From TrEMBL, chain A:
Bias kind Polar residues: ranges: 425-446
Pfam families reported in the protein's UniProt record: tRNA_int_end_N2 (PF12928)
GO cellular component terms, semicolon-separated: mitochondrial outer membrane; tRNA-intron endonuclease complex
The protein, known as: LALA0S04e03092g1_1
Biological process annotations from GO: tRNA-type intron splice site recognition and cleavage
TrEMBL record, chain B:
Catalytic site positions: Y208, H216, K249
Domain TSEN34 N-terminal intervals: 17-76
UniProt keyword Lyase, yes or no: yes
Keywords: Lyase, tRNA processing
One Pfam entry name: tRNA_int_endo
Quaternary structure and partners: Heterotetramer composed of SEN2, SEN15, SEN34 and SEN54. Interacts directly with SEN15.
SUPFAM superfamilies: tRNA-intron endonuclease catalytic domain-like (SSF53032)
Name this polypeptide is given: tRNA-splicing endonuclease subunit Sen34
Protein species of origin: Lachancea lanzarotensis
Enzyme class of the recorded protein, top EC level: lyase
Automatic annotation (TrEMBL), chain C:
PANTHER family: TRNA-SPLICING ENDONUCLEASE SUBUNIT SEN2
Pfam family membership, one: tRNA_int_endo
Annotated active site: Y265, H273, K304
Name of the protein this chain belongs to: tRNA-splicing endonuclease subunit Sen2
Subunit structure: Heterotetramer composed of SEN2, SEN15, SEN34 and SEN54. Interacts directly with SEN54.
Single GO biological process annotation from the record: tRNA-type intron splice site recognition and cleavage
Superkingdom of origin organism: Eukaryota
Automatic annotation (TrEMBL), chain D:
Alphabetical GO biological process terms: tRNA-type intron splice site recognition and cleavage
Domain tRNA-splicing endonuclease subunit Sen15: residue ranges: 9-115
Keywords: tRNA processing
Record Gene3D superfamilies: 3.40.1350.10
Species per Swiss-Prot/TrEMBL record: Lachancea lanzarotensis
Protein name, as recorded: LALA0S06e03928g1_1
PANTHER family: TRNA-SPLICING ENDONUCLEASE SUBUNIT SEN15
Length: 446, 279, 353, 115
């Protein structure tokens, strides 16, 4: 009976929860009436007005709709793009390199965007150019090839800028770029991020590292020749005195991909990937908003992101092989379940070297299962609406969650499920605090 | 419908298979809305540039939407970075002068307006207004340079030639992941629904009984099925029906009838599914 | 956390094969205890006294009909689902209760049913008010006044509801169809059977010696004598995944109600809510995005983590088919490799600091 | 499609778990190349507030086999609607875990419940 209570509870829980999450997502079409009050300094999003079930033919409803539409179109029309002459920054698009330059650069945006060359000219990627033009921060011009002077270079409209995108994929990428920029994230094309190559390579001997990579591979192959079991006579010959023994016998059958779990393993995996030319670029590297960001030494990104158009015949959702390749190429900060590893890679962390508090193994296991290991973000474009999905490497094969039974001890009967003490996972854990806090991925703090 | 009342849909990179249909003119966006097409605003709203809830032009259309608008004679496509580059490079000195004149005219209007405003303010404070004394540099530096939404460069070169339009249409149609969705879209439009992209709700489209600004959505429409061949995915029915119960939307499946060459016929059969409330 | 921990004694063992946990104590300095221990060891077995009897009904539905065996499978690892209940076989008790033949308190289903009816009534009232609202609008009444009235109406509804809950009574109902529930001695017939998912049945005969149906017979009954690889692929991949999770200690149950393949429970449903919803895929699958999105929404909506379990076949398909035909299931299932990816919605605004 | 093996399971489930009255199975006549059964019965109470009164319902038993694909096409659904001439049918989805779940299926575009 009690089990039914739980299960029923569980089912009933769906509806309300889904509803909750929808309230937040159904904001596709909102109440624009108070948008006029918004200014650059206070971006307070107004609450959604109550909506009706369907048109009922009343004038009152017509009026409400009329007002809603008017508020929306007024807000759009009133907010002209551009700047006053005093603040005007001119940027020129160069079709030959699909970039734009600012001859006399100034402004806050330069902390996170653009690249200044020897002559003091700031070069913007096309995404940065369009984004800044759309905000009104820069005025976009077209650099005509035949003349030096900017006098006769034509002003570009927003429409011109969009028409200059090279591919539909590029427009999708821009949409994702702008979406994150508006929220304050620092977004740089993964191809352009300065990579601290040398710091990435583990300090171990190069060849040794590769051999170790191979040995993990052979170990993996080994697991699919299981210990002979499942023989009809097995239970006549063997006696199991604990449930754990039965589980140990059962769990050897099906092989699994184990996630690298120490900083060392991660670096090795990354290195082998690079060594074999199996490194796959993401679309964007993303950093959380921060004032201390330095373009030249950005440190590892907080997230790496791949843009995917769900409606185009050119794109398909990644297969497992593709997802795995991506995991191996991830250079973003490790968000996985190993707090120790995380600490070691946070730039400027003072905690490095400090003895890390050991948690209850049950809680640690729970955390590994819930948090997973390496991850990246998939930005899914649906004709203008963007959803983000986080794909995280998980590993259930390395965890044993059975509870111990023993006829004699009664203390475990009422407690939470106890993980096995002796399992492989825990022994790895014990190694973690001993893993030297490596300096890899730490940006040179100057 | 009159040719020049047609709406211009800019097809970003319409020469490859996929293209992104965008509309830049606010009046066109209003027209579309009154015709039952909402689209998705995707551009930064300069007055509130740090949020994603309220956005501005361009308006992005679903590919099915763009195909349907052109098919029904309400819109036409135009495309190409070449167009912009060519137009910009071949701009004559005379045309540039025109552009600068327009800019100057806008400045003149602004100056006049600002002066008037200043005068009114002074008058209300009881201070006599002296035009000579008004700071010229302050005035000049506060003039607004607008980045327009709609292109003046390419408007002259728009090609509404029907063969070209058809070529673009077919390419865009072939770039759809599921071409049956176009027929589902069309059938729903014939039933006067407003439609928006539905991936966030686990569907191809979300259907509203009227303008989404005022009405809740009624249905999550699934990607088109082949009417005669595709079996209903019952596991999806179970999860879809459950989702629908929570969000008060029906889970709608649509079968597109195909002819012998597996080409879609304009005949769509809909079924609406919801949890029966027991079991 | 469990809402209520039942007598753990019922669920002492995680599997229907029990360890020998009643061996006598082994005292190091007492050789007699060694002999006694050895004797006990050799003479005992993990095997069941008799295997659980299963049969196929309604086509490929694998069922257990004996009430004791049903209960045994449920209590030792939560295997199977009772066809007329939700999980644990409770139909007989519920029916006795419904017909007023049992002293004990009202069954849970009954209470839930009452509540459901009340909710329906509440909604009906709500619909009536919508009509009133429309009428008010037609009359040109101010929006603020309408909102005001709506608030009052909702308040009165809520009061009514609390009242109803206090006065509900259990009414005994007897239907025509209930007549067939009694045998000649006027005893109630137990119509309930426990159904095992094919993967559960396979686990209980291939991995553990529990069912009286050998693995190869089960395999043949499920896909016929001469299957192609396509015919066995789903069964094999899902079995390998099931075995993978079961053997690492999870209680694995069908995920059908949440639109996925499996749910993973720690210990079992009476102890915890399922924390993970598993979808089993072939490693080269790439589905339409809508498929991932809707599945993830249902599982995520119930606050469970959504796991894509990718299964990779490490040997050629023909070889796998051959192993199936030869009944070499251990080698066959060992040729599927598991890889897991967690899939969850990510909200940029919530990940800024 | 062939549901001749599971219609009894659904009949029994409706009668003894869902407590429906007068539950009877019928074989459809004009469905081509298939052996299709539907179940008719009366629920213990109105299933939806949008229903005007308590009426007999048609249930189509379908089997969800996780190990092979179903075969209910929309074409077939149309044929069933054509024969039964009802505004909705209820899909009785028989799962391989021993449960039966029920879903309304309306022909055409239908409005969701108001509340």
């Amino acid at each position: 009976m009690t089990s039914e209570t739980v299960e029923k509870d569980e089912e009933l829980s769906i509806n309300s929860n889904v509803l909750d999450s929808d309230d937040e997502e159904d904001d596709l079409f909102k109440d624009w009436s108070s948008i006029a009050k918004l200014s650059k300094s206070q971006a307070v999003v107004p609450k959604r007005g109550d909506k009706d079930y369907e048109p009922d033919g009343t004038n009152a409803q017509e009026l409400l709709l009329y007002r809603a539409k008017k508020a929306m179109f007024d807000s759009i029309s009133d907010a002209a793009r551009g700047t006053v002459v005093k603040n005007q920054i001119k940027a020129y698009y160069v079709p030959q390199c699909h970039r734009a330059f600012i001859p006399h650069p100034r402004g806050n945006f330069m902390h996170t965007m653009g690249k200044v060359d020897r002559n003091g000219t700031c070069w913007l990627t096309f995404n940065e150019f369009v984004y800044l033009a759309e905000r009104g921060t820069i005025t976009p011009y077209f650099k005509r090839s035949d003349r030096e002077s900017h006098e006769l270079d034509p002003l570009l409209s927003i429409q011109d800028l969009y028409l200059l995108f090279k591919t539909a994929q590029e427009t999708d990428e821009f949409a994702v770029f702008a979406h994150l920029k508006r929220l304050g994230f620092i977004v740089i094309s993964s191809q352009l991020t300065p990579k601290s190559e040398s710091a990435d390579i583990p300090h171990t001997d190069v060849k040794k590292g590769f051999r170790q990579g191979l040995s993990t591979l052979t170990k993996a192959i080994f697991t699919f020749f299981p210990v002979p079991t499942y023989h009809p006579l097995q239970y006549h010959l063997t006696r199991y005195t604990t449930s754990s023994q039965i589980y140990e016998a059962l769990k050897n059958l099906v092989p699994y991909y184990a996630a690298p779990k120490t900083m060392h393993d991660l670096e090795k995996d990354k290195y082998v990937t690079k060594f074999e030319g199996d490194d796959h670029e993401f679309t964007f590297d993303v950093w959380k908003p921060r004032g201390t960001f330095k373009k030249k030494v950005p440190g590892p990104p907080d997230f790496q992101l791949l843009v995917f158009n769900k409606n185009s015949s050119d794109c398909t959702f990644p297969t497992y092989a593709e997802i795995k390749q991506r995991f191996r190429s991830v250079r973003s900060k490790y968000e996985g379940s190993l707090t120790q590893a995380h600490t070691a890679s946070s730039p400027g962390s003072k905690e490095v070297g400090k003895a890390v508090k050991r948690l209850n193994p049950y809680i640690e296991q729970q955390r590994r299962l819930k948090r997973g290991y390496r991850s990246f973000i998939l930005a899914v474009m649906d004709d203008g609406l963007i959803s983000f999905v986080k794909l995280t490497e998980s590993d259930f094969g390395s965890e044993d969650v059975w509870f111990k039974t023993s006829g004699k001890t009664s203390k475990e009967r009422s407690g939470p499920a106890q993980p096995k003490r002796r399992n492989a996972k825990n022994s790895i854990n014990k190694q973690i605090p001993q893993t030297p806090p490596t300096s890899k991925n730490l940006p040179a703090e100057t | 419908m009159n040719e020049h009342t047609k709406i211009a849909i800019s097809l970003v990179k319409g020469n490859s298979n996929s293209g992104t249909p965008l509309v830049f003119d606010i009046d066109d966006i209003k027209k579309l809305r009154n015709w039952g097409t909402a689209g998705i605003l995707t551009g930064t709203l300069p007055s509130a540039a740090q949020q994603n809830g309220f956005l501005s032009v361009p308006l992005r259309l679903m590919v099915e939407e763009a195909l349907w608008l052109v098919d029904s004679g309400m819109a036409f496509f135009f495309t190409g970075p070449e167009t912009v580059t060519a137009a910009a490079e071949t701009l004559t000195a005379r045309e540039m002068e025109h552009a600068l004149e327009r800019q100057e005219k806008s400045f003149a209007e602004q100056r006049l307006f600002k002066k008037q405003q200043h005068a009114e303010k002074m008058a209300s404070l009881g201070i006599p207004f002296d035009e000579e004394k008004a700071s010229f540099t302050l005035l000049e530096s506060s003039l607004f340079v607008e980045t327009p939404s709609v292109s003046e460069l390419v408007s002259a070169t728009i090609d509404q030639n029907s063969a070209r339009q058809e070529e673009l249409w077919i390419k865009l149609y072939n770039g759809l992941r599921n071409t049956g969705d176009y027929f589902v879209y069309k059938a729903l439009k014939q039933n006067h629904y407003f439609l928006s992209p539905g991936a966030r709700f686990g569907g191809r489209f979300i259907a509203y009984p009227g303008d989404p600004l005022r009405y809740h959505s009624h249905m999550t429409v699934q990607p088109a099925l082949d009417y005669n061949r595709d079996p209903l995915d019952l596991l999806q029915v179970v999860s879809g029906g459950r989702l629908g119960t929570g969000v008060k939307k029906l889970w709608v499946v649509a079968g597109v009838k195909m002819d012998d060459e597996k080409e879609a016929k304009e005949d769509v059969s809909f079924f609406s599914i919801e949890w029966a409330g027991f079991g | 956390m469990p809402k209520y921990v039942p007598n753990v004694k019922y669920y002492k063992y995680p599997l229907p094969i029990h360890p020998l946990d009643n061996l006598p104590e082994l005292v190091l300095h007492n050789p007699i205890s060694w002999v006694f221990w050895l004797y006990s060891y050799v003479s005992s077995t993990n095997l069941l006294p008799s295997k659980v009897h299963v049969k196929f009904s309604s086509g490929k539905h694998i069922t257990v009909a004996d009430p004791d065996e049903m209960l045994y499978l449920w209590r030792n690892g939560f295997f199977g689902t009772a066809q007329l209940s939700r999980s644990e076989p409770t139909w007989k008790e519920r029916t006795l209760n419904r017909l007023g033949l049992l002293e004990s308190s009202r069954a849970l289903e009954h209470v839930t049913e009452q509540r459901r009816l009340q909710r329906l009534e509440f909604k009906r009232e709500r619909a009536n008010f919508e009509a009133v609202k429309r009428e008010l609008r037609h009359q040109g009444v101010e929006e603020s006044e309408i909102t005001n009235q709506e608030r009052k109406f909702l308040q009165s509804l809520r009061e009514q509801e609390t009242q109803d809950q206090e006065t509900t009574t259990t009414d005994v109902q007897f239907r025509e169809a209930d007549a067939e529930l009694f045998d000649d001695n006027n005893k109630i017939v137990d119509l309930e059977v426990l159904e095992l998912m094919p993967v559960e049945a396979m686990f209980l005969t291939f991995a553990l010696p529990v069912l009286d149906l050998p693995a190869h017979s089960l395999a043949r009954s499920l896909v016929g004598n001469n299957p192609s690889y396509a015919d066995i692929n789903d069964l094999c991949t899902k079995y390998a995944a099931y075995h993978h999770y079961r053997s690492h200690g999870w209680c694995v149950r069908s995920g059908i109600k949440f639109g996925c393949d499996f749910l993973l429970y720690k210990r079992g449903p009476p102890f915890h809510h399922a924390e993970f919803g598993i979808m089993v895929l072939n490693s080269d699958d790439s589905m339409d995005y809508t498929w991932y999105a809707s599945s993830a929404r249902v599982v995520g909506g119930a606050k469970k983590s959504f796991i894509l379990c990718y299964v990779e076949l490490l040997i050629p398909r023909e070889e796998a088919l051959l192993l199936w035909q030869q009944g070499k299931f251990a080698r066959l299932f060992a040729s599927y490799k598991m890889g897991e990816v967690m899939y969850r919605r990510w909200v940029p605004g919530k990940n800024r600091d | 499609m062939n549901n001749s093996l599971v219609f009894e399971l659904v009949t029994s489930n409706l009668t003894h778990q869902q407590l429906w009255d007068a539950v009877k199975a019928h074989k459809l006549s004009n469905s081509v190349n298939s052996d299709i059964w539907v179940v008719n019965g009366c629920p213990p109470h109105k299933l939806s507030n949008d229903d005007v009164e308590l009426t007999n319902e048609w249930i189509l038993p379908v089997e969800l086999q996780q190990y092979d694909r179903g075969s209910l096409t929309l074409e077939l659904a149309d044929q069933i609607f054509a024969e039964l001439r009802c505004r909705r049918i209820i899909l009785g989805i028989v799962n391989d875990d021993g449960t039966v779940v029920y879903y309304f299926m309306y022909k055409g575009l239908h409005k969701p419940k108001k509340n």
